[in-house]
């Protein structure tokens, strides 16, 4: 059984995002054209236009349902038959626990702790939807039943 969940939130498209993205692109291009007509573009003008243009592109990407945070790195939870991998943010290091090493699973209100020897892998529920949390719990309970791992429920 294989489970993979991308932890980047899925942006909700809105008409305002489309309007704002196009507006930023138009302003950036208009600023460049007007500055050239008035005698040249300064370094500040280039930087200002670039920031406006990139902001418009990011807003349009979000309108299309693409999260701009994916540019900076991945955030995911992956459960394979061999291991459990968790990377909660694009700046953090991937945490890996072999499924053979799992000694206990503790379900809490806002997280699940996977105990393995001297270390514990804590998977937060925060960025996930209710359906994703239930699917994760179901998969971890199946793993525990298959391997005979003790499961503890706290504060539920």
Can you offer a commentary on this structure?
The chain is built from 3 helices and 8 strands, in the order βααββββββαβ. The chain has 156 residues and is of the alpha+beta class. The strands form 2 sheets. A 4-stranded antiparallel beta sheet has the order 1-2-3-4, covered by helices on one side. The chain has a 4-stranded mixed beta sheet with strand order 7-6-5-8, covered by helices on one side. A hairpin with a 2-residue loop joins strand 6 and strand 7. The longest helix has 23 residues, at 15-37.
**If you compute it from the alpha carbons, what radius of gyration comes out, rounded to the nearest whole angstrom?**
23 Å
SS field, number of helical segments: 3
Alpha-carbon distance between the two ends? 26 Å
What is the chain-wise order of helices and strands? EHHEEEEEEHE
Strand content: 15-25%
What is the number of strand segments?
8
Feature tags:
156 residues; alpha+beta; 4-stranded antiparallel β-sheet; 4-stranded mixed β-sheet; 3 helices; elongated
Give the helix/strand layout.
Layout: E1 3-6, H1 15-37, H2 43-63, E2 76-79, E3 83-87, E4 95-98, E5 104-107, E6 111-116, E7 119-124, H3 130-147, E8 151-153
Parallel strand pairs: 5-8
Antiparallel strand pairs: 1-2, 2-3, 3-4, 5-6, 6-7
């Amino acid at each position: 059984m294989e489970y993979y969940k991308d932890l980047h939130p899925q942006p909700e498209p809105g008409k305002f995002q489309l309007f704002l993205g196009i507006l930023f692109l138009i302003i950036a291009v208009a600023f460049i054209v007007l500055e050239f007509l008035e005698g040249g573009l300064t370094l500040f003008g280039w930087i200002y236009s670039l920031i406006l243009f990139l902001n418009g592109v990011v807003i349009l990407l979000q309108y299309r349902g693409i999260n701009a945070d994916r540019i900076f790195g991945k955030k995911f939870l992956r459960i394979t038959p061999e291991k459990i991998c968790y990377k909660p943010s694009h700046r953090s290091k991937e945490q890996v626990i072999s499924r053979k090493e799992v000694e206990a699973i503790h379900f809490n209100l806002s997280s699940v702790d996977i105990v393995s020897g001297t270390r514990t892998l804590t998977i937060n529920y925060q960025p996930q939807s209710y359906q994703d949390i239930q699917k994760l719990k179901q998969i971890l309970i199946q793993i525990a039943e298959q391997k005979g791992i003790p499961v503890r429920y706290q504060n539920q």
